[in-house]
Amino acid sequence: xxxxxxxxxxxxxxxxxxxxxxxxxxxxxxxxxxxxxxxxxxxxxxxxxxxxxxxxxxxxxxxxxxxxxxxxxxxxxxxxxxxxxxxxxxxxxxxxxxxxxxxxxxxxxxxxxxxxxxxxxxxxxxxxxxxxxxxxxxxxxxxxxxxxxxxxxxxxxxxxxxxxxxxxxxxxxxxxxxxxxxxxxxxxxxxxxxxxxxxxxxxxxxxxxxxxxxxxxxxxxxxxxxxxxxxxxxxxxxxxxxxxxxxxxxxxxxxxxxxxxxxxxxxxxxxxxxxxxxxxxxxxxxxxxxxxxxxxxxxxxxxxxxxxxxxxxxxxxxxxxxxxxxxxxxxxxxxxxxxxxxxxxxxxxxxxxxxxxxxxxxxxxxxxxxxxxxxxxxxxxxxxxxxxxxxxxxxxxxxxxxxxxxxxxxxxxxxxxxxxxxxxxxxxxxxxxxxxxxxxxxxxxxxxxxxxxxxxxx
Length: 458
Hints:
Number of helices: 7
InterPro entries: Rad28/ERCC8/Ckn1/ATCSA-1 (IPR042238), WD40/YVTN_repeat-like_dom_sf (IPR015943), WD40_PAC1 (IPR020472), WD40_repeat_CS (IPR019775), WD40_repeat_dom_sf (IPR036322), WD40_rpt (IPR001680)
Protein name: Anaphase-promoting complex subunit 4 WD40 domain-containing protein
Structural class: alpha+beta
Strand content: 35-45%
Distance between the termini: 9 Å
WD repeats: 94-136, 181-216, 309-350, 396-428
Number of strands: 31
Strand order of the largest sheet: 1-31-30-29
Region (Disordered): 257-286
Largest sheet: 4 strands, antiparallel
Keywords: DNA damage, DNA repair, Repeat, WD repeat
């Protein structure tokens, strides 16, 4: 079977992207609490943030630590890899935070710098090699969130959300504040940069609003409204790129992945005629006789009613974009998870099954690279939902207290979770690599070569 699969790859019948995607999906689907790897944390408080290959964590005791995910510090019983922190900055450090570290993020370009945000109202930039503070920024209130654009090439800005109603932008290059973004009516709990534009920032506030900002101009240009919706998802790529369309769609519905959905057909028809709902709405509004220009508006392009729209009935506690930059996930203190189409700004009406979320602190969500699954902390467990159907795919239980953060490693296909029990747990694929390969090959043969069949023991 392996030889046959390789032959199909050589002949071009089995695309590399498809094979890689299904292999990753198969490993992600088999995640379970690892019995081969564990982290020995130096934290004496809840784990609030987890980031990247060198795992960067921030905790409620005011400390931040770095772990090497790939290289174990020691081995227990010969095969259990123990990972101890290779760097620790705590309250005893001369420049350490005095209160809760709410967020710790890496500088996107390399691991030479990292940023921590704390309830002591400071955002600090650290040199990893010297473990010294390079610069710090004093905020007007408790800092709930900090974020840097993963694709920025022309700026080095840190966006910060705090108990203050404004988003503050801090420039690492100059060591000063550049400007503030005003619009929220309460504190800002979550921030997320766009993965398709280095200028677009999204913020979620305690007022229930999610605002989109172009940092080059004043005011937000979009406020998400939960009542403004579209049914289904749009095709992610233009016609003719079937591999790319399949890349996003096959996980949610493998049996119907080659058949366009009704919403896709409608969207394609609108593209051909050049009359989408969004365009027709704009044209209709701009050609109403007797209506002049808007004399006063709170934000460019927004009416007062649009400016007051809400995405959740309560604080927005978490934001996460998909890797393709097309969709945004948001969680709220109303214990709801919503999926938004970033291009149209519409609620996609994906009905995620019942969940219970924390309401008093920000949550760090994780999405697989496909994207097919979203991992969300649900009190002492972590739930994996199918991104497109909203069905619960799997529930992970292992923590003893509420979970605050999740990080999904695309390279290792592992899930890392941090909790109030001061532990970082590793969830690894339980299926052996060989079995994954065979399962993947069978999947492709059944989907793309229906003339081949397998026995149960094959």
